[in-house]
Amino acid sequence: IPEYSLDRDCTTLSRHVLQQLQSFSPDAQDLSSIMNRIALAGKLIARRLSRAGLMTGALGLTGDTNVQGESVKKMDLYANDVFISVFKQSGLVCRLASEEMEKPYYIPENCPIGRYTLLYDPIDGSSNVDINLNVGSIFAIRQQQGEDSDGEAQDLLTDGSKQIAAGYILYGPATVLVYTIGKGVHSFFLDPSLGEFILAQENIQMPDHGSVYSANEGNFWQWEEQIRDYIRYVHRHEGYTGRYSGALVGDIHRILMQGGVFLYPGSVDNPDGKLRLLYETAPLAMIMEQAGGKASTGEQRIMDYIPSKLHQRTPAILGSRKDVDLVLSFINDKGER
Ligand code: P6P
What reaction is this protein's catalytic activity (predicted)? Predict the structure, then answer.
């Protein structure tokens, strides 16, 4: 029998989380249930995306702008609400903080101290939805620290080490869920015939170098001179190729699987760049580091960055160690290459 025809042993996501934790403690069960709920949200979003083109009113803009000042896609709102609804029934998550909501959404009955918070970008890269290119959801799980009496969720303004779990769902030709709870990075493919995410790869380790650099070179003249010098370097030297989809999750997944570097630097207009820390760059930084890569703002490790506000932006240089270090060598202008 050809190998590809042999079904895997069908390790589901919830079973894998328990295996990872090597425990059936209440906390382990909670985390396993939370990951299962995230997987359910992913299935519901994947189903909608596959049908959106055939559903009247599912595509296009709502006419509103979100807290980011970006025009809101109907898919953004749908996906945002999916995460809220799957966690409303869960009794596990107390707060949801999303790119689409100015303030966190509270599920009051779930809110004893120490309960979990979901930080997420429900559909990242939603401008790709209407042209049927890949989009993604990005998530991180934290625990509430102390009181949050004013509803400002100040306790979330901490560094990335407080993330209990992080990952993303990539809605592409297949729907792939990638996650870490600090014990390596693992990928699951959604098997539509089973309606389950099935383990595909465990302990993914990204190459320490890859040929891909992923950046929006349309911003070239907005960048600092050091970044421009880096781009000139990869233009001039053999062995580099540009890949950029305009949707973060797909660009990052390529880097995770093949190596290379994704960069969204600061610019004259946006010195902190465009990407948000708590539900974009911090979760992805945890994934990069767990897979043997690096994640820097250009000045510091993203995982060490302490935000001053919920929707804090940071510049982002994410990817293989050697490729991130090459970008940093230009930023620090060490000269040696
Ligand atoms: P630009 C999508 O809007 C997004 O948040 C990320 O998915 C993506 O990496 C980035 O912005 C693209 O931004 O400025 O290159 O269009």
Answer: beta-D-fructose 1,6-bisphosphate + H2O = beta-D-fructose 6-phosphate + phosphate
- Rounded distance, CA 7 to CA 257, Å? 22
Q: In what order do the strands lie in the sheet with 316-319?
A: 241-242, 212-214, 261-264, 316-319, 294-296
CB 137 within 8 A of CB 86: no
For the chain, how many residues are written? 337
Tens digits of per-residue pLDDT, 206-225?
Answer: 999 999 999 999 999 999 99
Strands (E), the chain: 61-65, 71-73, 93-98, 105-106, 116-124, 135-143, 165-171, 175-180, 186-191, 196-201, 212-214, 241-242, 261-264, 294-296, 316-319
Q: Give the residue-averaged pLDDT of 175-194.
A: 96
If one counts every other C-beta atom within 10 angstroms of the C-beta of residue 146, the result is: 9
Please give the ipTM for the structure prediction.
Answer: 0.98
**Residue 199 is encoded by which pair of tokens?**
């383990």
Rg (CA), the chain: 20
Would you give the DSSP letter of residue 96? E
Here the tokens at position 30 are: 């909670």
Q: Is 99 in the pocket of ligand 1 (CB under 6 A)?
A: no
Give the pairing type, strands 294-296 and 175-180. unpaired
Task: Annotate 215-251 with DSSP letters as a single string.
Answer: --GGGGGGS-HHHHHHHHHHHHSTT-EE---S-HHHH
Contact 296, 230 (CB under 8 A): no
What pLDDT, on the 0 to 100 scale, is given for residue 63?
A: 78
Q: Is 120 exposed, middle or buried (0-12, 13-18, 19+ CB in 10 A)?
A: buried
d(CA 183, CA 180): 6
Strand-pairing partners, residue 248, are none
Indicate whether 126 pLDDT > 90. Answer: no
pTM of the predicted protein model: 0.94
Q: Please give the Cα distance from 140 to 119 (Å, whole number).
A: 5
- 125 known member of a binding site: yes
Q: Which atom of ligand 1 is nearest to the CA of 251?
A: 9
Ligand 1 near 274 CB (within 6 A): yes
Contact 274, 160 (CB under 8 A): no
Kindly state if the Cβ of 246 falls inside 6 Å of ligand 1: yes
Nearest to 324 by CA among 208, 243, 225, 245: 208
